[in-house]
Amino acid sequence: MRVDLTAGKTWTESVGDEVWMAFTGGAGFAAKVILEEATASTDPLGPDNPLVFALGPYQAGNCPGNAKWTVAAKSPLTNTYGDSAAGADWGVALKKAGYDALIIKGAASRPVYLLIDEDRVELKDAAGVWGLDAYETVKAVQSAEDDPGLSVANIGPAGENLVKMACIVADGHSFAGRCGLGAVMGAKRLKAIAVRGKKAVPVHDPDRVKELARDRFKEIFAAAKGNGLRDHGTPNLCITAESLGDMPIKYWTGDVWPEGAKTIGAPNYTEVLKAKPLPCRNCPVGCHRDVTVDDGPYAMKGPGPEYETCGMLGTNLMICDPEAVAKANDVCNRAGMDTISAGACVGLAMECYEKGWITADQAGMEIPWGDAKAAIELIRLMGKREGFGEVFAGGSLEAARRIHPDAERLVAHAKGLDYPAHDPRACWSLGLNYATSTRGACHMRGVTEDVEMGGFFVPELGIVKDWSKLFSPENKAELTVKLQDYCAWLNSLVICTFMVDGGEMTFTSLLELFNAVTGWGWTVEDAMKAGERITTVQRLINLRDGHGRHTDTLPYKMTVPAREGFRAGKTPTPIEMYLDEYYEMRKWDAQGRPTRECLEDLGFAEYAGIAGL
Amino acid sequence: MEVSVRLFGTLRDLMGERRTVSLDAGTTVTGLLKSLGLEEKGISLTVVNGVQVEAAHVLQDGDQVMIVPPVIGG
């Protein structure tokens, strides 16, 4: 469906099978749209930036882990391709309403929300919900439409205020956090997209899909029970990650904090926060947590912090009280802000405060390491763009440039996107993965750290236990290329990565299900070729927007070795030891541009001009 | 000889976080895992004195051993 918010019009278009066969859906389809319909000069917060919500073949049927949906646009943080994914109910509801994607352009003159009730589509006045937080908005829209079952994706006040780390929130439950796409939605004055869908989605072989989905569901549930993901969620990783030097401590300047990780992580997290699984629709893993803090300054109830948030709003800030981190997470969620980038901003503030580059007078408060109340207050101000929070509303990199001439090198980022809570000095492949990731620093489009830590393998790609080698450059370029392409395909399918990484669904099993849904008869090679095609299209957008080898880099902090702990004395430097091999494997030139041979092989000869060929 | 063992993830939940294990001289990581009733295929990483080792690594008296099962986090 196309939406022109400036004109207040919506209409549907058919997309040819050849497009789905080439790009699969999701992040692949969105990248094609952004390559073709945006330019280097498209302002991420301007009306011409296409905001694309895209589903894939996997949203058909009751496939396990199919609640995912992808949103993409030019990111206000990186000024190039950005995407993010979330779950809950929304993606499946949109598919059942009869749509594969929404392409939204223009900007409304006043706040609106989009109501999609299968074939009835309306843009409705959002004056009554503008200003509400992301949880309140769901209930207000459901109430206005008199349907408590309506699925609602929306922005909170941070998106309305064009905070560049604003996220998009689905059903008050799951968060498309990264790349600031909530600000793109806010710039279009689009508060929410509410969906009602009950149509059956046709699949190639319904009986086979049903049978395979049921079997995979049982297997994935057993795997997630076995590795603790079901019982403790992603906070189960905290203690292990800290022990291996993988968890951020003191905004990437600390080396070890075992007591901190033990306090914030499971099992203490599970006990203190009375955490229970909060599964998305059709999910056998249930990694999300529903948590409760009954009373006190951190009282809250709702979705709890993930591992990433325990890292970025926890140990990253020298805060380990689970109740305090749950509250900081809740404030971010309600404002509609990415907890990773918000944590990076508060970490930067605390580090600059320690250096004397920020004073208590400037900030209106003291911001020492470990001060949870100060962190929460700064997050509140960031979401509102008020007071000292306004300094950080443009993200960590913009804030650093405003704070001090030397502050920029404190920011751990790739292409403007803050590092997530996995340290490349512990898992060296992450340095290359973050540097080359098409949306900036991202661990989820490679998950190479899980191979290095020995928890995830893909035998169909030759990635086996022998590849679990920490502090060695061996295989890292090949691992990164293969898993980036595999994840690019997963993100286009669109499936939750935990079904394969954690849920242990094999590539072969997944293809069996995919082929039962599509009837395409794809092999591993077909899927990997699609993944390569998708990665390449996203890379072409990066190149067009001014990125390349000069931004395929590691931030300063990743060149500083730990003084103690598991990764003492070790850094993944110089990045050139993998980067040239990575480019060569991808058939890219020394500047990181796909060669003509590469483009022709992928059927992209017409894009040669974008690669500067 | 004795080695100190630290367990992670689901192993920690099942067996406790730390224990001291008495072994015969020359015991390998495989032997240690067997003495703990653990299967090699269920272990992601074994770290001895801060260094990742293979299953055939021969342990020494006083070694600090970390045993990590598959642990996933997003």
Low-confidence stretches of chain B: none
Strand content of chain A: 5-15%
Instruction: Tell me the number of strands of chain B.
Output: 5
Residue fraction in strands of chain B? 25-35%
Q: Provide a count of the helices of chain A.
A: 25
Mean pLDDT of chain A: 97
Let me know the largest β-sheet of chain A: 6 strands, mixed
Summarize this entry quickly.
The complex is a heterodimer of chains A (613) and B (74). With 613 residues, chain A is α+β, with helices and mostly antiparallel strands.
Overall description:
The complex is a heterodimer of chains A (613) and B (74). With 613 residues, chain A is an alpha+beta fold. Helices cover 39% and strands 12% of the residues of chain A. Chain A contains 25 helices and 17 strands. Chain A has a 6-stranded mixed beta sheet with strand order 2-1-6-3-4-5. Chain A has a 6-stranded mixed beta sheet with strand order 8-7-12-9-10-11. In chain A, a hairpin with a 6-residue loop joins strand 4 and strand 5 (81-86). The mean pLDDT of chain A is 97. In chain B, 38% of the residues are buried. Chain B contains 2 helices and 5 strands; from the N terminus they run E-H-E-H-E-E-E. Chain B has helices at 9-15, 29-35; strands at residues 2-7, 18-22, 45-48, 51-52, 64-68. Chain B has a 5-stranded mixed beta sheet. Helices cover 19% and strands 30% of the residues of chain B. The A-B interface holds A 226-229, 234-241, 243-244, 267, 287, 306-308, 443-444, 450, 453-456, 468-471, 497-498, 501-502, 566, 568 and B 6, 8-10, 12-13, 43-45, 47, 50, 52, 66, 68-74.
Features:
heterodimer; A: 613 residues; alpha+beta; 6-stranded mixed sheet; 25 helices; 17 strands; B: 74 residues
